[in-house]
Specification:
By secondary structure, this protein is an alpha+beta fold. It is built from seven helices and ten strands. It starts with a helix and ends in a 6-residue tail after the last strand.
Amino acid sequence: MPEGHTVHRMARLQRSRFAGAPVAVSSPQGRFATDAELVDGRVLESVEAHGKHLFQHYGPDLAVHVHLGLWGSFPNRRRPEVPPRGQVRMRMVGETHYADLRGPSACALLTDVEVKAIRARLGPDPLRADADPEEAWARISRSRAPLATLLMDQSVIAGLGNVFRAETLFRCGLPPRLPGRELGRARFDALWADLSAMLRAGERRGRIETLRPEHDPARLEPPDRGSVCASVVYTYRRAGKPCLVCGTPVARATHLARNLFWCPTCQA
């Protein structure tokens, strides 16, 4: 599932390529056809992201809400556009670019009240200027649930997925099963700052790279050609491989139906 940095990058690109001008909106697949007619030809006023949710605002009570889910994609390309291929739920065509939405878990036209209701269910998003970390701290500091659970709860912090969960817990030296109320304020502040930095870097680069320079095998002399995968992340999907910091095999377990990765030594 695309994590928050992907959706924020998508929103930024759509703002620069479509906003401020009329946009042709259609639904080649047909499932969004009725709503598409209501915004077709209107000026796209703004685009924003909150966590994994994208909101395109075409005017009062005219907001297209998109959630990519597990398989969705929404790339935009330079015109001229090619005929739709596959199941295109929504196509938007601007002056210089077009974008095809495929496989989302949500694509619907909402009122401003409905948008507000969705955002009210979400926790603070570290990539938003209006994010208040105090909201996340209030939830975490009172909870007996482990950090592994809390960081995947979109009502606690919006935008995180399995990759960022594994990587920030490692980078902050935190055991995945540490109860939230035992975290402490200083470690929470470090966790929030680390998440903010990684998400910003991911949004800027368009990919997740979490290794600090001193731990990147690609920077070794001679380069460690056998660690291409490990040169991007510390623990995610590296079960059984040596920790890049201490050499301990990375552990894996199933937690709430999702894979959990951590270093038993660095995160003791």
